[in-house]
Amino acid sequence: MTAVLSARRAALDLGAFSLGPLDLDVREGEYLVLVGPSGAGKTVLLETLIGWFRPASGEVALGDHPVAAVPPGDRGIAYVPQDLGLLLHLDIRSNLTWGVDCRGMAPDPELFATLTRVLALDRILDRRRPGTLSRGEQQRVALGRALLTRPRILALDEPCAALDPHLRREFQLLLRRLHRERRTTVVHITHDREEAFLLGERIGVLLDGRIHQLATPRELYDRPRDTRVARFLAPENLWHGRILSTEAGEVAVDIEKAGLTLRSSDGAGTASGRVLVGIRPEEVMLLHPGRPLRPQVEHNIVSGSIEELLLLDGRVQATLRTDEGLAVVTRLPLCAADDLELRVGKRIRASLKARSLYLLPTAE
Amino acid sequence: MTRPQLDAPPPPAPAGRLAGTTAAVLIGFLVLLLVALVRLAATGPGEGHIAFAQLLGLSVFAAAGATFLALLLGVPAAFWLARTRSRFRRVLTTILDVPTMLSPVAVGTALVLFLRDPPGSWLDHGVGILFGLAGVLLAQFTVVVALVVRSSEAAFAAVDPRLERLSELYGASRARVLTRVTLPLARPGLLAASVLAFARALGEFGATVTVAGTIPGRTETLATGLFLALESGNLAGAAQLALVLVGVAGSVLLVLRILGERRP
């Protein structure tokens, strides 16, 4: 895989905020999502990558050249900023073709027809001003404008954030489909973790101006690299612990608050000492009293009673208070919750699957 | 992106009453001034002939010319000022503001002195500025150019530079960015600047009279003619001229309002 866009020890100091130093490779044809909370420096990072900010140290390279050395029009980058950058004095059609217009060219009629159809722009094409469009329509015009230029790299800043929740999912799926069809390299930044997992082939977690982890969604889900990443991705089910022993890849860890010993198959890099023990709520298995245990759930079994039940849309979030006093959050489909006849106060056993329990060294 | 208009919250009662009274007094004052003019103007044609059409024509021509010159030099300067990060920006804007703050007669005096010696005298010999129509234009230009620069600068500053950079990223040349993005977006502000400059030039008196005098048919404008009529005791004529000025300035300001409300 070749890097189309890369940052090497790139650092930027904007007074109150500093970015990096960070390394990043954007691979040809991939969908890369950078996720982080507000104020993490996502937009600054993206705009540094496209050459709008010059790093104070380190460098950003587009292929083999420093990005700043390539004239903006030759970078092959189409950027859709969060505020979209539509031209309010032009009509919709002119806005859509503005990207190719900038080169003094006419849009490819075939691509134009395809994009207006896929982005459902046919009906609004002859409207006069972008100000009269809904946010979703504006978003699609801005995306269409970018795609009409056949960019090598598409840079998206929070493209779904301003949309209504139901439209947001639709738009995310549209982005996913467009990428799968065209294999345009995409760098997408968002604060929405679910969006990152849905779209990213690789996800970078940006916290306080640094990329803490860059990995596939599955790696990120199973093994967050440090405590900050873990707290950002899944703040539930994180406990302080102490490693007791390591045997054949299995680690025994003592959860101090509860006086509970758990086993984990995450032996990587944590030989001894204090750790943060975590498990995703989806990985906590509530056990059906009448059924035999499958091998992957026969360890780390705790019992307690249901303290809180939240009905999410189609899913249930249950908090189990173990007999040792540990609060364990779990999420399961509504049908599974019905099957277990969950209700507040009900006694139940759960397995904190050893395979899913991750250990993170803490500062101490 | 349109936003719903919120009703402004009413000011608290005693302050609101005071503010309302002040507004009423102010408007009453201005109306009384206008009434005084109308009553005086209605006392009939005063002694002495006033060539209204000629004065109006010359005034409009000179003000339009001065505005054009001010735009020609002021708009590019404003564009540079709005985009530069030069340390001298503050110094330059301060210098530009000086003519606005000086008394117009002082500006006129400075112009006359400038035109007496080289390099100014070359200009005077070449074009014939002192006591000529070119003098009217130059005087009015000097008074309004800072106005043009200041309001155009604000207009350019209001254009989001990210839109320009975005267009560059799409491959637009500098010229295309300027003509297709920057200027159209700054257009309402630039129009307002020109209208304001025109109105100001039309009523300009001090600098004009100092540089160009009041020669009927050559340098006499509505504003200077008004002063002449007053000097010669033709009060009714002066009032009529004043009303013409009020009419022209009023309609120009009306245009300004309309342009200001029409957003792109």
What labels describe this entry?
heterodimer; A: 364 residues; alpha+beta; Rossmann fold; OB fold (Dihydrolipoamide Acetyltransferase, E2P); 2 domains; 5-stranded antiparallel β-sheet; 20 strands; 24% helix; B: 264 residues; mainly alpha; MetI-like fold; 77% helix
Description:
- The complex is a heterodimer of chains A (about 375) and B (about 260).
- Chain A is of the alpha+beta class and about 375 residues long.
- Chain A folds into two domains: about 5-230, 3-Layer(aba) Sandwich (Rossmann fold), CATH 3.40.50; about 235-360, RNA polymerase II/Efflux pump adaptor protein, barrel-sandwich hybrid domain (OB fold (Dihydrolipoamide Acetyltransferase, E2P)), CATH 2.40.50.
- In chain A, about 25% of the residues lie in helices and about 35% in strands.
- Chain A contains nine helices and 20 strands.
- A six-stranded mixed β-sheet of chain A has the order 6-7-8-3-9-10, with helices on both faces. A five-stranded antiparallel β-sheet of chain A has the order 13-12-11-14-20.
- In chain A, a hairpin with a 4-residue loop joins strand 1 and strand 2.
- The longest helix of chain A has 18 residues, at about 165-180.
- Chain B has a single domain (about 50-260), classed as MetI-like (MetI-like fold, Orthogonal Bundle).
- With about 260 residues, chain B is mainly α.
- Helices cover about 75% and strands about 0% of the residues of chain B.
- In chain B, helix 2 (about 50-85) runs antiparallel to helix 8 and helix 4 (about 105-115) crosses helix 5.
- Chains A and B meet through strand 6 and helix 2 of A and helix 7 and helix 8 of B.
